[in-house]
Structures are given as C-alpha cells and as structure tokens.
Description:
This protein is mostly helical. Helix content is 64%, strand content 0%.
Amino acid sequence: MQNALVKQSLVDLLPPLMVALVVAFWAYGPEALLSSPWTLIATSSAITAIVLGLEFVFERHAGWRMNKQEFFTDLFYVVLSATVIAWLTQTLAEDPLKALKTSLGISTQWVMHMPWLAQVALVIVILEFGQYWMHRLMHNVTPFWLTHAPHHHITQLNAAKGAVGNPIELFLISLSVLALFDFDNTALFAGLNVLGVVSTFAHANVRANPPIWYSFVFTTIRNHSLHHSTDYEATRCNYGNSLILLDRIFGTYREGESAIVGQDERRRLSIVEQALFPFQPLIQRYKARKSDASDAAAGTIEEVSPA
C-alpha cells in the first residue's frame, strides 16, 4: 500500500519535473543546440512523444486509450500545426508585427535586461493572456464557437489532442504579440516549451494529479477534462490552456473532472468534417434553397402538365 502511494506521488510530480527539465535545458544546454533553429522543433516533438509514452504506463481512463485511428488523426494535426499553421502565423501575423515595430521605432530592449527566468515567465504570461481571451471569445460568440467546436467533438483526451481542431481555430489561437518584444531567444523558447509541457499534460491520458502549488497556477488534466465535458454550459469554464491562474483571476475557474468528453452526443468528426464545420450553417442554407428551388420547379411542371 505504501509503495503504491509513493509510486503515485512520483507520477503526480511528472508535470512539474518535466517543466523544470525544460527550463534547465534552455538555461544550461550546449550552445550548439541552443542556437539551432531546429532545437525548438525537436524539444516540442520530444515532449509530445514522452507524454504519449507515459499514457501507456500510467493510464488515467481506459476509455481514452490510444488507438490507430486516433493516433494518425492526431499526427495529421501535429504536422499541420507545425507546418501550414506555423507558416501562416509567421507570414500573416508575426512578420507584419515585426515590420510595424520597426517602422514605429518601438524598442523593448528593457526586456533583454530582465533576469532570464523573468523573461521566461513574461513569455508565458503574454502568450497565455491572449490565448485565454481568444478561447473565452470562442465559447461565447457563435461565429468563433463554430471554429472551436470541432476541438470539443474529440471523444477522448490524449497527449497530442491540443493540436486537433479546425484550421481557422488553430490559426486564431496561435496569434500573439510576442513579436513586439525583444526576448533572449533561449528565454522565448523555454517559455514556449514550458507551455507545451503544461498543455500536453492537460490533454493527456496520464493519471498525474500535480501538487496544489502547481495546479493553482498551471492547468491540469482535471481542470481541462471538465472543460471538455459533454454539457456545453459546463465547458464555459477553465479556459486557460496552460495558466489556470487566469481563470482564478477572472472568475471562470470551476473545480471538477470529467471522464466522458465530447459534444453533440459524442459524435466524433472526421478531418473533413472538422474542416467544414464552421461553414455548416452556410452549407445547410444553400441545401435548403436548392431544395426549395427544386420543389418550386416540380410544382411548376405539375401546373403546366396536361390533364
């Protein structure tokens, strides 16, 4: 019994330990690795792979167990986010912001003079603050909800599920103003990796329940599984992708957990259905008009037909 408690306590420490390892790597890692543009991609991929492996060892819910269909769907979205979505974000948002910053002569050199850990914390707060309000907007304004709803049609939670959703939503949720700030690159990448660790565990099928000093600030699977529950009204809470502290501050935090996730009677959407989901009202309106036109044409033919 005591051994089981010790083992569970160690499992509960996995998220904070991985956060600490990520920060230590970017603070003290080899210069050759830290200066490579490919290192962030490698560390982000490694985080997902490691947590995915932990799901097989420390499974939280059998109903969320990974299968071949889920794996390849998740892989599709991970690749999509790392390529197409990343390129769109860079081209349509970050590069224009940098150009605007230069043209207006905006200087944020003061950021570079902050202690390194303070820069990491600032990266986390800036990115999460924007994502919190974008996420909250998506749950409270219909056009934005239509882009976000496919993410809530997932019927199980796994390590890569944070990347699953409609491409429009994936682009919108990736937007930030980080490009306006002059961060040390290692601090920027450390902040991004910390957010990656937290959000990956927050979607993962791992039975880790981190200690209160962690879960008070960072989002956990308990908070986020409730956000993914089957009742739409119950999903309108715990918006913080990685910083549940923002929900506590802005009054949207709710205690609880849900082992059953998914919307619309837990109907799983295909990749094509997820892509088309925001346009369903337009598609249905078009089909209704087409049907009305067909009925009208049929009625006209009946009227002119000889008795």
